[in-house]
Structures are given as structure tokens and as C-alpha cells.
Amino acid sequence: MSAATPPLEERDRQHSSRVFFLPAAIGPASGFPWWPLPDALRLLRLVTALLFMAHASMRFVLGTIPQFGTFMESQGFPHGQAWVLAITFYELGAGSLLILNRGVRWAASGLAVIVAVGIVLIHRHNGWFVGEHGVGGSEYSVALLAMLLVVAADDAARASRFVPSANEADST
């Protein structure tokens, strides 16, 4: 690391208040083409949110909520359309929270449950691959699940860095 490049902790503090995920500077000192980890994690959080929000909003655009509700009822869920609406609104709300960087672990955890149930109920029956080699398989959902786990872990790590220890709290 050059003298001009601050340690990782300092770079994290410098980037933590930025709204956009683009590196502050592009050049040798920034490590380009590799983004600083906080910027890459911010990008992952935003992309994950947008993927869920796009997926949920298409249920309204395409009018597939009744069809999905019928499927849910065939899987043993009473009031299937109510379940679909709850899932859809959760995906939109949790995506918004991820974008706003609020309640990230809770939002990501709920989305992870939705993805896991989707894998069990829908995607595992269609094999592994989503495109090219198959249709509707689990690979995309597994990638989303991994993204959510990383987003939640990053939020937990950031929170633990800024929480004073019990000894520090007692001494004030």
C-alpha cells in the first residue's frame, strides 16, 4: 500500500457517508479497476434491492398475482392471493429499506426466507439452470440468497464497528 492510500478502516470511514457507489477517484491511488470494498458492498446492496423490486413490481405490471395466488393455494397455502400480495409488498418494502440502508439485516433476512421458500416450492423442481440449459431452475435464486447473506453480513460488521463495548459504555 502506498503512502497516499489510507488503511482500509480509514477508507471505509471516508466512503461510509457517500450516496453513490462509484469510487471517489479513478486512478492508480484508488486501486482501479478494483473498487474499494465498501463501494463494492454498496453496489451489491443496491443491485440486490433493485432486482427484488423489479421482480415484485412485474407482478402488478403483468397481472400475475391471481395466477401466483392459485399456485400458492395448490401448494397448501390458504388465501393464496393474500400471500402473494404480502410477499410482493415485502419485496418492495425491503428493497426500499436496502436502498435507504435502513434495517438492512432484517430486510435481507426476510427476503432470504422468501428466496429459500421459492427454491423449495418452485425452482428445485425445474432443475439447476435458469437460462440456456434449462428454464426456471434454482441457480438465480441461490445467487440471490448468497447476495442477501453478504449484504446482511456487511451490515452486521459495520454495526459492530460503531457500537461501543460494555467497558467503554461504563466508563462514560
Provide keyphrases for this structure:
172 residues; mainly alpha; 7 helices; globular
Summarize the structure.
This protein has 172 residues and is mostly helical.
Rg from Cα:
20 Å
Number of strands: 0
Shape: globular
Task: Give a quick account of the main beta sheet: strands, pairing sense, barrel closure.
Answer: none
Task: Label the structural class.
Answer: mainly alpha
Beta-strand portion reads: under 5%
Mean pLDDT: 82
The number of distinct helices, counting runs of at least 4 residues, comes to 7
Residues in helix, %: 55-70%
Element order, helices and strands? HHHHHHH
Alpha carbon gap, first and last residue = 36 Å
The low-confidence runs, each spanning 5 or more residues with pLDDT under 50, are 11-21
Secondary-structure map with pairings?
Blueprint: H1 8-15, H2 37-62, H3 65-74, H4 80-100, H5 104-121, H6 139-162, H7 166-170
Helix pairs in contact: 2-4, 2-6, 3-4, 4-5, 5-6
Task: Tell me what you see in this structure.
By secondary structure, this protein is an all-alpha fold. Helices cover 65% and strands 0% of the residues. It has seven helices and no strands. The protein has helices spanning 8-15, 37-62, 65-74, 80-100, 104-121, 139-162, 166-170. Helix 2 packs antiparallel against helix 4 (80-100), helix 4 runs antiparallel to helix 5 and helix 5 (104-121) packs antiparallel against helix 6. It is globular and about 50 Å long. The two termini are 36 Å apart.
